[in-house]
């Protein structure tokens, strides 16, 4: 295989900004087996100048190359930088007279032009360098060199993600160093501050970033439809007109002694017929009122049916993953747009969504009673309120406590010391929307601030709706045949369009 030698005159940038010759991917620019890096007098002068005026790593590299050039001079003008594939030599050629005449295009006042002129003088004075080329990382200098007839090779551009590159990583300037130092200090400060996370969860226990309420519109029943249901209820629970005034027949007891019979007569059970006043109240007041309640129940049933899907329960999990507690933390909940905040009932019995058909009044009945009944009273001691339970209790320092939740659009909660590295605190509440709400109605914004928190943490939960048509009549018949109470837990129940499915 023929040995090919390529002589290159690099510019100053190659020595100060590119990788060492042992690391450069030479195969990208030549197939030569040997490369000679010749350093002209102007480039060497610029390297010596950068030893004292350069900054940071550039000054360090200038001193390193200056030492290598000195070693090459002491070794006869050559120094091996790489032994093979390809072999790379550093050459310090002897000075030559300036180029004359100087091409009119070159300006001696420009450093790049002086380098080009120096290389052309070396090519003119040394026959072995007549094929030497200019190696540069400067596009402007490369164009000038070509215009004056100097063969030029440009250092290839480094592609993003390339395994090998020519240039060294860019050294950050003074401003970048200051920014990095400030970022380091900020990270240190943040490590000494609370780190707050707020996560929302729906009624099913799934993490959510938005809520969609499946509204169902129920049309009101027509008056004749409601009246027909009332008639059905009356026929199933007719008004009682006959009342038992005589005691019912009782089984004959075994013979008793005269003394036992006297004791039973004095203290035993006696028959008490229905009270005439109670009978009159049942017939003239309670039963007619029940009919009116039935009529109003069915006429207003559509508004009750639409209520469950308009309210949804939400949980917020608040955690402090930092290294110190959040001092005097304030939690703010804001209802935006058509959204409203509502308290979560303490129990399902407090739910206002009662779809139970009004029960018919119970007709007065006669009864047996004992003369001993007035003595069956509870110990009044047990009706005294506990003094212990009535004492005011101070809230724990590490828990959030609501100031006021009567406002439907903004709630505030305080926590004196929101502790770090503990289990998340859970805030539960209801979100309500109007029955005629548009598809995109608003949001709930949660903001947590603290005295030692660099900036408040804020999470916004968008709220939207879908709308479908429901069957009021089907639900009315379902309720009529249900024959038992039907109460839905508020915020945790969704009615379908028909009573076949509800959750």
Relevant terms:
503 residues, alpha/beta, Rossmann fold, Immunoglobulin-like, 2 domains, six-stranded mixed sheet
SSE arrangement:
Blueprint: E1 5-10, H1 12-17, E2 34-38, H2 41-53, H3 57-74, E3 78-82, E4 87-91, H4 111-125, E5 133-136, H5 139-147, E6 152-154, H6 174-191, E7 196-201, E8 207-208, E9 211-218, H7 223-236, H8 258-267, E10 269-272, H9 276-299, H10 301-305, E11 311-320, E12 326-337, E13 339-342, E14 367-370, E15 401-404, E16 410-418, E17 425-433, E18 440-449, E19 457-470, H11 472-482
Parallel strand pairs: 1-2, 1-5, 2-4, 5-6, 9-19
Antiparallel strand pairs: 3-4, 7-8, 7-11, 10-14, 11-17, 12-16, 12-18, 13-17, 15-16, 18-19
Word description of this protein:
The chain has 503 residues and is an alpha/beta fold. The protein has two domains: 5-158 and 165-171, Rossmann fold (3-Layer(aba) Sandwich), CATH 3.40.50.1010; 182-239 and 281-366 and 395-503, ntegrin, alpha v. Chain A, domain 3 (Immunoglobulin-like). Helices cover 28% and strands 25% of the residues. The chain is built from eleven helices and 19 strands. A six-stranded mixed sheet has the order 3-4-2-1-5-6, sandwiched between helices. The chain has a six-stranded mixed sheet with strand order 9-19-18-12-16-15. The chain has a five-stranded antiparallel sheet with strand order 8-7-11-17-13, with no helix packed on it. A hairpin with a 5-residue loop joins β7 and β8. α2 packs across α3 and α7 (223-236) packs antiparallel against α9. It starts with a strand and ends in a 21-residue tail after the last helix.
């Amino acid at each position: 295989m023929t040995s090919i030698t390529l002589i290159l005159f690099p510019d100053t940038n190659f020595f100060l900004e590119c990788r060492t010759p042992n690391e450069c991917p030479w195969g990208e620019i030549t197939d030569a087996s040997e490369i000679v890096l010749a350093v002209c007098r102007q480039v060497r002068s610029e390297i010596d100048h950068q030893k004292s005026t350069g900054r940071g790593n550039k000054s360090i590299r200038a001193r390193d190359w200056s030492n290598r050039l000195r070693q090459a001079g002491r070794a006869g003008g050559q120094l091996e930088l790489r032994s093979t594939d390809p072999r790379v030599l550093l050459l310090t050629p002897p000075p030559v007279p300036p180029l004359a005449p100087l091409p009119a295009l070159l300006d001696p006042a420009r450093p790049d032009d002086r380098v080009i002129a120096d290389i052309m003088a070396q090519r003119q004075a040394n026959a072995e360098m007549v094929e030497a080329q200019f190696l540069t990382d400067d596009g402007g200098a490369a164009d000038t060199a070509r215009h004056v007839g100097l063969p030029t090779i440009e250092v290839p551009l480094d592609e993003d993600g390339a395994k090998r590159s020519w240039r060294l990583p860019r050294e950050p300037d003074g401003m970048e160093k200051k920014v990095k130092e400030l970022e380091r200090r900020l990270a240190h400060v943040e490590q000494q501050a609370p780190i707050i996370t707020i996560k929302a969860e729906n009624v099913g226990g799934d993490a959510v970033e938005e809520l969609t309420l499946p509204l169902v519109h129920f049309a009101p029943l027509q008056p004749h439809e409601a009246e027909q249901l009332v008639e059905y209820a009356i026929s199933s629970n007719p008004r009682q007109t006959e009342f038992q005034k005589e005691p019912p027949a009782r089984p004959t007891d075994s013979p008793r002694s005269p003394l036992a019979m006297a004791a039973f007569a004095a203290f035993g059970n006696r028959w008490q017929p229905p009270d005439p006043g109670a009978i009159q109240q049942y017939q003239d007041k309670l039963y007619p009122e029940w009919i009116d309640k039935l009529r109003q129940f069915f006429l207003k049933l559509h508004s009750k049916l639409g209520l469950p899907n308009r309210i949804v329960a939400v949980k917020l999990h608040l955690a402090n993953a930092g290294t110190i507690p959040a001092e005097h933390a304030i939690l703010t909940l804001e209802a935006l747009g058509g959204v409203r905040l509502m308290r979560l009932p303490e129990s399902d019995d407090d739910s206002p969504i009662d779809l139970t058909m009004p029960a018919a009044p119970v007709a007065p009945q006669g009864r047996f009673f004992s003369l001993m009944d007035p003595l069956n009273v509870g110990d009044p001691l047990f009706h005294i309120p506990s003094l212990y339970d009535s004492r005011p209790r101070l809230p724990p320092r590490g828990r959030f406590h609501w100031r006021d939740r009567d406002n439907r659009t903004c709630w505030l909660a305080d926590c004196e010391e929101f502790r770090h590295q503990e289990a998340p605190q859970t805030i539960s509440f209801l979100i309500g929307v109007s029955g005629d709400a548009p598809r995109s109605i608003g949001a709930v914004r949660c903001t947590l601030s603290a005295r030692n928190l660099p900036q408040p943490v804020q999470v916004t939960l968008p709220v939207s709706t879908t709308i479908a048509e429901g069957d009021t009549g089907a639900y009315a018949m379902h309720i009529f045949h249900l024959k038992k109470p039907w109460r839905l837990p508020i915020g945790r129940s969704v009615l379908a369009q028909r009573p076949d499915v509800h959750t």
